[in-house]
Amino acid sequence: MENGIRLDIAGGINTVSSPDQIEANGGGWAYLQNVRRNRKSMTVARYPLGSNLLASPLANGITSVARLNDPYNLSPGYAYLSGSNGSLYVGTTQVASGLSTNPLSFLPYRPPDSPQPWDYIADPSLAVTIPSYTASGYGPVCGMLKVRSDGTCYKIGIKEPQNAPVVNVSSAASPYWVTYRYLYRSKITGALSNPSPESVPIQVQLASQAGSYTMDPSYATYISFNTSQYQTAVSDTQLRTQGIASGTLTDYIIAKDLPGLVGTVPTGSQITGVSVSVTWNGQQNGTGVLSNVALFYQGAVIGQIKSPGTINTQTIQTTVQGGASDVWGAILTPDVVNDSTFGFGIQVLT
């Protein structure tokens, strides 16, 4: 053969698999270093252009090597990048450790004659250390780095979450289901990693916000009623009917701006239900019926009116309408229920 020695490359050059994944004896070759193709399209060997790397002063054997051009700042005009026993070197200076000990994948990115070009490096390790920086400055580093001929080394990869989140619901679950994924963000660039596998689907946690009010001298802030049908009792601690003929359906007593409720529902929440609880009694058994209960917003009924038809007793009783999965046929948003006019009303049949 003219100008060289012919090489028998069993399996050809494998441009798909990473170097450490190629099977021995016929699986192919990841790359060839220090070779060229002559005019007869034959692959031939040639001598290295620089120092003999097999005589490197590094303590451990070199697993991979690349050359970076630097015609302005280095006397020989270039620097060697070496992978050796899980560490990365520029010349004989260590710039990163914690790599996998497999051959590194180098991707130079430069015009051939530019000074101090960057070389991009990939490795399967998820625990790389860059000695020239503190961990708090760049966060966890996977085996994606870029390095310059002067030894400057930066993280470019974002550690990818490998496991699905484990999510538990500690309180009652809503009718809605959701899955979760981990997603990491670069502290420096803000770039996002690929997402983790999905969690097992779970029911969204159901949180409750409760507002309540008991009649007191400040009732006018929270309670409105027809004063020809109702009056406050001693010390404004009770509200009772007055002078109403039997069989009369009263106007609504409206309770709104209830302490503990207004402004507490987070923006973006999905409201799944509303429960109204009224504690009441009568001076005599069977003198009145809790006829209707409705939600109110901006002074008007919204949604469906519920008609419990509960008869009063002298013993204090609590009547509950609605529930955790009952929106009363209304469109309820955080803006509505956080409004000071939102509340409920009751009608009594005497």
What can you tell me about this protein's structure?
This protein is an all-beta fold and 350 residues long. It folds into 4 domains: 1-47, no CATH class; 51-155, no CATH class; 159-205, no CATH class; 219-349. It is built from 2 helices and 22 strands. It has helices spanning 135-138, 334-337, and strands at 35-37, 43-45, 62-69, 78-84, 87-90, 93-96, 105-109, 118-122, 144-148, 153-155, 173-178, 202-205, 223-224, 230-232, 239-241, 253-256, 275-280, 289-297, 300-306, 310-311, 317-322, 343-349. The strands form 7 sheets. Strands 13, 16, 18, 19, 20 and 22 form a 6-stranded antiparallel sheet that branches. The protein has a 4-stranded antiparallel sheet with strand order 3-4-5-6, with no helix packed on it. The longest helix is centred in the middle third of the chain and has 4 residues, at 135-138. The chain is rod-shaped and about 110 Å long. It starts with 34 loop residues before the first strand and ends with a strand. Residues 32-54 have low confidence and may be disordered.
* SS-derived structural category: mainly beta
Strand element count: 22
Helix content: under 10%
Q: So how many helices?
A: 2
User: Strand portion, in percent?
Assistant: 25-35%
User: What are the segments in which pLDDT stays under 50 over at least 5 consecutive residues?
Assistant: 32-54
Shape: rod-shaped
Mean pLDDT: 78
Integer count of domains: 4
The SSE string, one letter per element, is EEEEEEEEHEEEEEEEEEEEEEHE
Task: Calculate Rg over CA atoms.
Answer: 39 Å
> In angstroms, what separates the terminal alpha carbons?
116 Å
Major sheet: size, sense and barrel closure? 6 strands, antiparallel
